[in-house]
Amino acid sequence: MSTDVRIGIVGAGGRMGRALVREIGGTDGCMVAGASERPGAPVLGQDAGAMAGIGSIEVKIHDDPLALFAGCDAVIDFTSPSVTAHHASLAAQGKTIYIVGTTGLEAEQFDALRKAAAHTAIVQAYNMSVGVNLLAGLVRQVATQLGPDWDIEIVEMHHRLKVDAPSGTAILFGEAAARGRGIDLAQHSERGRDGITGARQKGSIGFASLRGGNVVGDHSVIFAAENERIELSHKASDRTIFARGAVRAALWARSAAPGLYGMADVLGLN
Ligand code: NAD
User: How far apart, in whole angstroms, are the C-alpha atoms of residue 263 and residue 222?
Assistant: First the structure.
């Protein structure tokens, strides 16, 4: 009998869902054990592997999340914030490892993740790439060294279909900078400037979002002072990097105690 970690994918028909099917297919020690989609999705009944371009893996896409969570060791979710709380409760019920990559989560969804994490290991990250998580550590370090005379601006660009702004990764960098400065991001962020906004607030962290084409994800954190500027940037050219991080998180979580973790834990950066 196979000892592979049985991984389920919610949203298997999405851009990340398909990348996950391909990534798991090419990774030793794990297998796609189930795949689900939203009720009414056109891909229901199709083979998850065939749909992701790697040929049949004999896993049909269904719309029963309860069966998915009950039948897998770990479930990876890159879908919509509206289903995160429900999926978290199914993970707690089945003691299923839960990896959440969905962005745009609100406080109530984070509460649901914290509650479910009493029963199982959950990894939540707005960006699962190794490079971005390393860069977040550098952003924090630079922000710790530089005082509020250095304005911090975060610029991101994504493909034209992205529905939330600023990107989860921009927020992740904003939080890293805020932690470095010892301030609360919610109290010090400037978003969506338009019209006569007045001068920039000293010590705030600004966000700007660009949308267009098929850009997978570009981010720059700019530290600007009188007469000099530091820019830390990351450019993603393929979704594989996020899928690889999510699969790594699922395999790592097998030996983790119940709790809510981030990619810094998975990568041993904490
Ligand atoms: P997408 O629109 O291509 O795919 C989302 C899929 O989820 C769709 O196929 C949709 O039908 C499905 N879905 C929606 N509700 C569902 C439900 N109740 N049950 C099952 N499936 C459901 O979007 P995408 O580009 O794959 O991105 C998905 C999410 O992942 C977004 O929030 C995006 O910002 C985020 N994302 C995160 C990272 C990261 O590293 N954390 C990286 C890339 C994208």
Answer: 23
User: Sheet harboring 228-236: ordered strands across?
Assistant: 189-191, 205-211, 151-158, 217-225, 228-236
Q: Nearest residue CA, atom 35 of ligand 1?
A: 102
Q: What is the distance in A from the centroid of ligand 1 to the CA of 81?
A: 9
Residue 269: band (very low, low, confident or very high) from pLDDT cuts 50, 70, 90: confident
Q: Is 204 in the pocket of ligand 1 (CB under 6 A)?
A: no
Q: What is the residue-averaged pLDDT of the chain?
A: 96
- How far, in Å, is the centroid of ligand 1 from the Cα of 10? 9
User: Which residue range forms the structural domain that includes residue 48?
Assistant: 5-124+239-266
Q: Are residues 118 and 13 in the same domain?
A: yes
The answer to whether residues 78 and 149 belong to one domain is no
Per-residue pLDDT tens for 67-101? 999 999 999 999 999 999 999 999 999 999 999 99
Residue 118 Cα to ligand 1 midpoint, Å, equals 25
Two tokens, residue 38 = 């939203």
List the residue whose alpha carbon is closest to atom 31 of ligand 1: 102
**Do residues 177 and 246 lie in contact, with contact meaning Cβ atoms separated by under 8 Å?**
no
Q: In the chain, how many domains are there?
A: 2
Task: Indicate whether 119 and 245 sit together in one domain.
Answer: yes
Q: Residue 193 pLDDT more than 70?
A: yes
What amino acid positions are annotated as catalytic residues? 158, 162
Could you tell me if 187 and 93 lie in one domain?
Answer: no
**Ligand 1: which residue has its CA nearest to atom 16?**
38
